[in-house]
Each structure stands twice: as structure tokens, then as C-alpha cells.
Amino acid sequence: MAAAAVGRWTGRFAGRKALNICRETAGEVTAAEPGFRALSDAELGARTEAFRARLAAGEDAFDLMIDAFAAVREAARRTLGLRHHDEQIMGGTAMALGMIADMRDHEGKTLACVLPAYLAALEGGAVHVINADDREAERAAGWMGPVYRALGIEVGLLRPEPEAYTARRAVYAADVVYGSVSQIGYDLLRGDMAWSPDEVVQRGLDVGIVDDARNLFIENRDLEMLISGPAPEEEVERRTAWAGIAESLSREAGDYSFDRSTRRVRLLEPGIGRLQDLLGVDELHPVEDAVGLGLVADVLAARESGEEAPGPDRQVRLARITVAGLLSAYGSLSGASADAACDHEVFQRGHALTVVTIPSRRPVDEPGRRVLDPERFERRADLERALDLQRAEWAAERAAIMSGEGRTARIDGLFDEFAEQAVLGLPRSCGRDDLDAVLALVGEVCPISVTVDELMRTPKRAAVAGRLRAAIAEAYGRRERELGSELLREVEHHVLLSVLDLVWREHLAREDALPASLWLLGDDPNETFVDAVVGSYVLMEETIPRETVGYLFNLEVEIETDEADGA
């Protein structure tokens, strides 16, 4: 359900208990039942378009909830011989409100999920009923399909078999889509990596309704979906160099310590000094040097454990997301689960979701489930949330580039940032040596024609940045005349996406290596990991202007000409 609609509806009932609202809804749906029993099959199916007409006239989805739920109840009775009992109506109401319905096992959660899914589908957004695995998704879609079809609602099922983009996109085009968390997650990641809109199969993540919510929100929230690929040659070379340096360190010489119980390596003062000497640096940085330091830790840990050291050519991460990250990407989220109430505080702290305990039709004594520590869960959720928010920002930026949205403004902004970075750290008034160094720095990336003498006429730092920016624009104008506007636009598209993929891959590599890197240098990852990940993301963003400018000006482009043109 749209977040704004949820806010409007819940605002009307401020101060009232959610459970009371669910009970009242069940009573009103039952009161409406005789009218829907009297409808013919055709008349019942036609109610969907009537509901959509009411939405178009200004009502919101929650104005329709009583009638919509009564229609679903009647469709289920006719097609499956199953009539939603009041507790299922209450569970469906809780989910429609964007909450977790705590329902006992065998209370019919799968049937209850049809209620909020149908209501959300009336609005036309992308509605996904999310299951823990492919088998459950197929079972639920096959079982509930007749209910939806009786109401004129198309149901899609995501299967694990490979499909062409057009076939997969057709599944996601359905009113309600059933799929496992892995199918939806990997389709999202592949869409994040797409190079054209034709390769994107999802039409959005508007509404997510999770069947067996505890499984995905809590028990498997940290499960990672990952796409990997071969390491670039230059990355293999860097890893080889760092591995060679690691071989020069010795525990016997007091370079590092090793904890066998945790397999953690920590550099000692002699080892830090030796490593700095071997690298020719004055300081080791846990974020900037994370990949290399992480490799040093892996090599040393393998040596001490008698294991084979990881090879420098192992695959690199290209895209990743956790189950929790995927769920948080939905505009509206809800679900049903058994045993959710015992961890209601975990749902609230970790996902900002309220748990509504639905009374059981058959109360029984069941052994209590172990309750999680909400504070510990919240800390872990914060770690993953930082990573998943970064993925969301990167994916949004990439989607905008892929669509061509604001390309000229984006490139102009990167030119501005590059010019500002070039003068960063200079005194307010720059001397000849300062300006000479700046021109050398910029000249490595961009063939500008401005001279030191020209810059000396306005040696103020801000003025120098402005003049450099103008010189970059002049050089880019020459580049456009050389290649032609149409070809340069294609180059821009290619470069912007390539650079964003490059820096993101480097960020993921740092993120993966950060725990070992932090521990190696004496920090506790439990306390500093989030700050380090943020630092890595900032470093990624700072790298983009220089990399983009460099590729735009130096990428070799072959211009094909027809033989007739050269005749």
C-alpha cells in the first residue's frame, strides 16, 4: 500500500488499538458478505474495475477495503471452497495497514495474504508476495491463482529457470507477482547492473507482502545475494604484490600476533613499521588500504592455520544485497508469521514494523520461542542498513545515467568537482610553484591549454578553480568537434556507467576486507565498521570526478567511415 495512504488511514484512527481496527474490519466484511453472495460470477469479476473507477474518482485504497475484502472472500469460497474466517480477515487488515500479522501455524496465512495483495493491486503498482523459497512461491501462486483470476487479476510466478528479458518482464508485469526472495533479489541486482532499460525486468518494488515473515525478517535477514566476476588484470597484479609483501612478515620476529580461536591477525609495532617500509608509505590507512591489508591478514592467517592462502585471481564482487536490504527497498512492506509477537521489539527496532497478534481460532499451548536481544539485533541491523542504503543510492544514480536523465548537467557537475579537487589544499593565494603543480596534476587527466602565466593573473584559489573549469570546457569542446556530438554522447553513456561500476566494485572490495583490515591495525570492527564503510563510500564518490574526466578525454574511440566517404 502506498505509504501516504497508510499514513492517511492510520491517522483517522489515532489512539485506537490496531487489533480493534482489525476486529471491526472483520465484522464489517462479514456484514457485507450477503451482498457479494448474491452476485453472479461475471458481476463479481466486474467489481475489480468498479473498485478502480472509485480510486480514479478520488477514493483511496482503504476506502475500498471492506468491499475489496468481501470480494476476495467470496471469490475464494467459489473457487477454492475456502471462506476466509474472521481471523484471516483480521490478519489481512493488519497487513494492509503495513504491519506484521502474528498468526499461529496452520491458521491460513497464505490465504490471508491474498487480501492485502488484491487491495494493493487495485492501485496498479508492483505488488510482490515474497516467499522464502521457490517451492513455496510456486505452491502459493498455484493455489491462490484461481481466487485472483475470478476477480480479473493477473498473477505472475517467478520461476528459477533462465528466461529471456521479455519473458521475465512479462511475469513482473502481472498485477500480483509471487516469487522467492532470491528470485526477486537477483533480478534486482541484475537490473542494477543493466546497460540499457531493455535489460531491466522489474517495474518497481512498490508493495512487498512477506509470507513467513519471521523467516525473512529475522532468521535469514543477513543472507547475502551476491553476483561475482573475474578480477581485472590490474587487480590481480595489486593482490599479487600485497601477497608478496605479506610473505615478508614473521610472527617469530614480532611482526604480528595470531589468535587461533578467532583466526584473527593483528600487526604489532615492528610489523607495522616493516610493512610501511616495504610499501614506501608513512602511514597505513584501514579504509584506503583495506583490500591490501585484508589480503595480508588472509595470507598470514592461512600460514598460521596451515591452510592454502587465497589466490590473487579470486573473483570480485560486482553487486550484493541482503534479504533485509531487499525488503527495505519496498515502498510499503508487511507480512504474516507465526511467533512474531515474541520478537515484536525486534521487528520495531530493526524494521520499523508493528506486530499485531491475531487471536487463534484454536488456542493451544505451544512452547515459547527464544526471544532475541533487541539491542543486539538493532546494532546488526544498523550495520547492514548502512550497506544497503549505499547500494540504493548507487543503483538510483546508475538508473538515472542509463536513462540519459540529466547527462549534460551530470558531466558539468563532475567537471566542477574535478577542478575543485585539483586546487583542494592550496593556500588562498597561490604561488607559481603551486599553480605549476596544479597544472601538472590536471594535465595528467585532461589536455587543457591554460598556462601558469594566465593563472598568475588571478592567483586566488577560487579564481584558479574557475579558470581551470573553463579550460576543461574548452578542451571538451575540442573533443566534441573531433568525435562529433552523436558519438560523444555514446562515449559519455559508456564512460559514466563504466566509472560508476568500477568505483562501486572497488568499494565492495574494501567493504569485504574492512573487518580484517580494521582488526589488523588494532581497531575493533564491531565499533568502527559503520564509520569505515561510510568512509569507503565517501572515497568512492571522491574518485568519480577524476576517473570520469580521465576516461572522457583519453578513451580511444575508433571512428568508422564508409568507403564511399573516403572516395
TrEMBL record:
Belongs to the SecA family. It is a peripheral membrane protein. Keywords: Cell membrane, Membrane, Protein transport, Translocation, Transport. Residues 4-567 form the SecA family profile domain. InterPro entries: P-loop_NTPase (IPR027417), SecA (IPR000185), SecA_DEAD (IPR011115), SecA_motor_DEAD (IPR014018), SecA_Wing/Scaffold (IPR011116), SecA_Wing/Scaffold_sf (IPR036266). This is SecA family profile domain-containing protein. It comes from Actinomadura vinacea. It is found in: Membrane. Its main location: membrane. SMART domains: SecA_DEAD.
